[in-house]
Every structure is written in structure tokens, then in C-alpha cells.
Amino acid sequence: MVHHEHRRGIAAGIAAGAIWGLIFLAPELAPGFAPIQLSAGRYLAYGILAALLLAPSWRTVTARLTRAEWRALIGLGLAGNIVYYVLLAAAVQAGGVAMASLVIGLAPIAITLAGSRDRHAVPLRRLMPSLLLSAAGLACIGRDALASGSLAGLLCALGALASWTLYAVWNSSALARASTVSGGQWSLLIGVVTGIEALVLAVPAFAWAQGSHDAAAWWRFIGLVGTVALLCSVVANTLWNVASRALPLALTGQMTVFETLFGLLYGFLWEGRWPALFESAAMVLLVGGVVACAAAHAVEKPRPAPAGARPRTLV
């Protein structure tokens, strides 16, 4: 049976993916705004919300942080938030929801491969069924999506994938070392740092932007970025940190498949259609990949670390 802590982490990972899937729709809901404006707006809102929620315990929490942890927070804010969302929004607007979902859907494979060398990982041969199922599912999704997507959108999506993979690996490593704060506090700290970074991004995003919007469009934009900040940044990031602490990195990577699945489902609802045959097959295969990965971790015991070995860190 899967360990209780693993079940808790898997449930948190699925919930985080269900919420994160909404981010694929956000650029479609604000077509007149540039990706850099969507990113700046979302993370300014995230920073404000995080600061308000963390204010009562700010001094207590920050007093326990080391310089290395502050550096990690700054890097994670850029990699997992600012850079990632600019590239993702550009990919959705240039290539569509399906193409962006497909490429970001490669994250489970990328993170699982990165986590296969972790000291708590199972042997890579045990992960091969999971990786093959995931690859087959992604091939089904991409059968038509890549053919219709633009090269610029594809390149932006690949950049977003690289940024998100870096964030997932780095965040798992940083969380393992940051034993003085909870997963929720860590998420809020990233939010505060990201909000400060977004202030710098806001200058070129809004002061030098082309075009104009009426008052109604601006209110829709504010409502959209505020909702995305609350759900996808505050709530989902906290759930992801629960999963990151409860699961080995290779299994945590598999949890990102639910962002792809829910992103596709929301896209189908937005477009008012049922998934096609290959799209349905893809979702079944992707879920099968997660189940196979969970089974591999339930059967195999973690490999013991070599004598004198130090935990692997990204930075």
C-alpha cells in the first residue's frame, strides 16, 4: 500500500494541479493585455495577498531565515513565477491552450528524470513504465496541437517548461533545508519576494505598453489577476509545498501532470466541445503514468545514500 504520507502528498498534488490548470485560460480571458502585463499584474496581487497573510508572523518567520534561504526565495520567485508566467502567457496567446498544455505537460518527465538521481529516488528502471505512459499520452495530445501551433509559441512554451522544471527541483531542495518554516509560510515568503520583483516588471509592462483599454477592461483585468493570484499562487502553491515535502522528487514531478489534464479539460469547456479520441486516450495514458509512478514508489524501498554522501542540492 502507498504510505499515508504519500497519499496525503498525492492528494495535495492533484488539488494543486486542478487549480493551476486555470492559468491556461487566463490569457484567453484577457486577450488585449500583453503577457508581461498579465505576469506583472498577477504577481503584484500575489505579493500584496502574501504580505497581508504573513504580516502577523512576519518578524518571527523571517528571523529564522538564513541568507541562503533568502537567495533561494529570490531565485524561486523569478524562475517559478515571473519568467514562467510571461513565457506561458505568450505561448497560450501565440499557439493556443492545447499546444501550451502539451509542452508544459512534459514537466512530469523532465522532473522525474531530474529526481531519478535524488538519494530518495527509486531506480530509474522502475520508473520506465511511468515515463513511457506519460510520453505516449503527450504524443497523443501533440498529434495535432504542434502542427497548428506557431514556432514562437512553441519556443515560449519550451522556455516555460525549462523555467518550471528548474523551479520544481530547486523548490524541493530548498524546502528540505528550510526546516524552520512551514510549507504555507514558504509559499507566502515566495509571494512577498515575487511581489517586489513584479514591481520592477510593472514599469515596462504598463508605462511603456502599446494600446489603450477602457475602464471596464481594466476592471476585468484587475479581477482576473487578483483571482489567479489568490487561487493559483496562494492556495495552489501551498498545496504544492505540502506535496513537495511529503513525496520523493520523482513522484512530485508526476503530480504536475494534473496541471496539464485540468488545463485541457478547462480548455475543452471554454471551447464548448468534447475531447477527441486521441485527446481522451492521452488523458488516460497520463493518469496511468502517475499511477505507475506511485506504484513504483510503493513497491521499491528508497535506495540508501552512499556512506559520507551529502544531500543533493541545486544551488
Describe the structure.
With 315 residues, the chain is mostly helical. 78% of the residues lie in helices and 0% in strands. The chain has one domain. It contains 14 helices and no strands.
Quick tags:
mainly alpha, single chain, 315 residues, disordered C terminus
Q: What gross morphology would you assign?
A: globular
Roughly how much helix do the residues carry, as a percent range? over 70%
Number of strands: 0
Number of domains: 1
Structural class: mainly alpha
Task: Give the low-pLDDT segments.
Answer: 305-315
Q: Evaluate the radius of gyration.
A: 19 Å
Described by strand count, sense and barrel closure, the largest sheet is: none
Distance between the termini: 35 Å
Order of helices and strands: HHHHHHHHHHHHHH
**Total number of helical segments?**
14
Roughly what fraction of the amino acids lie in strands?
under 5%
Averaged pLDDT? 82
In short:
With 315 residues, the protein is mainly α.
Itemize the secondary structure elements and their pairings.
Layout: H1 4-20, H2 26-29, H3 35-54, H4 58-62, H5 67-95, H6 97-104, H7 107-115, H8 124-148, H9 151-177, H10 183-207, H11 215-246, H12 249-255, H13 257-271, H14 277-299
Helix pairs in contact: 1-11, 1-13, 3-5, 3-10, 3-11, 5-6, 5-9, 5-10, 6-8, 6-9, 6-13, 7-8, 7-9, 7-12, 8-14, 10-11, 12-14
